[in-house]
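Final report, Chapter 2: Outcomes

The project's central promise was a pipeline that accepts a single protein chain and returns its three-dimensional structure in a standardized token representation, suitable for archiving and comparison. That pipeline is now operational. To close this chapter, we reproduce one record exactly as it appears in the project archive, with the input sequence first and the structure output second.
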Amino acid sequence: MAGHLRGPGDRRGLTCPPWIRGLTGVAWWAVTPQPTADPRGAIETVFRIESPRVIAAVARIVRDVGIAEELAQDALVAALEQWPRDGVPDNPGAWLMATAKHRAVDLIRRRENYARKLAEIGRDLETTAPSGEPAALYDPDDIDDDLLRLVFTTCHPVLSPEARTALTLRLLGGLTTPEIARAFLVPEPTIAQRIVRAKRTLATRNIAFEVPYGPDREARLGSVLDVIYLIFNEGYAATAGDDWLRPALCEDALRLARVLAGLMPKEPEVHGLTSLLEFQASRTPARTGPSGEPILLKDQHRGRWNRMLIARGIKALGRADATATGAHGPYALQAAIAACHAHAYTYEETDWKTIATLYGLLAARSPSPVVELNRAVAVSMTEGPGPALEIVDAIAAEPALRDYHLLPSVRGDLLLRLGRTAQARAEFERAAGLTRNERERELLLRRAAAAESS
């Protein structure tokens, strides 16, 4: 959540959007790779940057993301063969795009039942040379449309959440299978199988390569945003392993959110998610100590928070407000909560009353036990630990929280503030037994020991 559970310098020049006060991007393909003495490495870097739009454009032609990825890989192989010999083209992305599209044409030509489609797309490609420099560059508007189609395809509800995440990172994030496996601490064969099955499912179910409209759009967009948030959250507070943070996952998710905001500028929740991730990412430098140990929000050195990301978060939140036509969505509300934290010079100066109000709105908009748990933290800062403990105890029996380590963690903190140290120690120990992250376990055991000695 935005402030407490999963989760600057001089901020005098930053302002909150009015709707918060009243309660109480560069796209990745525009990045220039750094020079390198390794030509193969340089080519692979260019491909990683360009591959999402190449795959998206080819998928529109062949209507199969799996085949589209294979054709994009064929273009990479051609680049590895030709560029070291002939030199890097002035526009590497256009070269890769043209080559991949011509591979698509060749594939369709070999399939008799695609004769009609060949005639249609052949007219569009007849001015483009398959080797050397393309005669006509692609239309940026078409690329944006293709990328948007690819986003909605990889995050289609027909796929499991795990499959959506893996396929999105593979096709849109440009990550390799080993990189995804390392990020989520899952064996490579497991990730490879998820990706293969996801592609097969999209093909066999004849999932349309399109952006949904009408009643399906909001639900489908929610799936896309949830996948991006899941990727970020796993990097922000890893559920398992020896590291508390996995910054690369946060960077990938933030990059995807920024691109989506550029593709869908009129969608307030897209800006809301982008704002939330900007704010959350701004705290990264202060969230771990010298040895990688977690540092809680109240103990963080806020001078280490990234002011540039905070400013970007505020701008994105302003766009979410400007494009909203009704009540704010859950991501915009969470971003507003994060903005309250960003504007506080110290933990004690945090506007907890506004945060508690925002959590109340979030609970009404998207009720869940986790939201209530976060609200309890805010209530504890405005009304004291007693009323907050009542909220926590009221949701303690929720099935969704049965193995959720942050429930006993929050409860332990409230009990400690009430002076019930023995009970607090027991709750911290219980939380330590539930978490699968080694760094978090160490933190909780330290808190248990501190409670015992207090």
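Archive annotation: The radius of gyration is 24 Å.
This record, like all others produced under the grant, will remain available to the consortium after the project formally closes.
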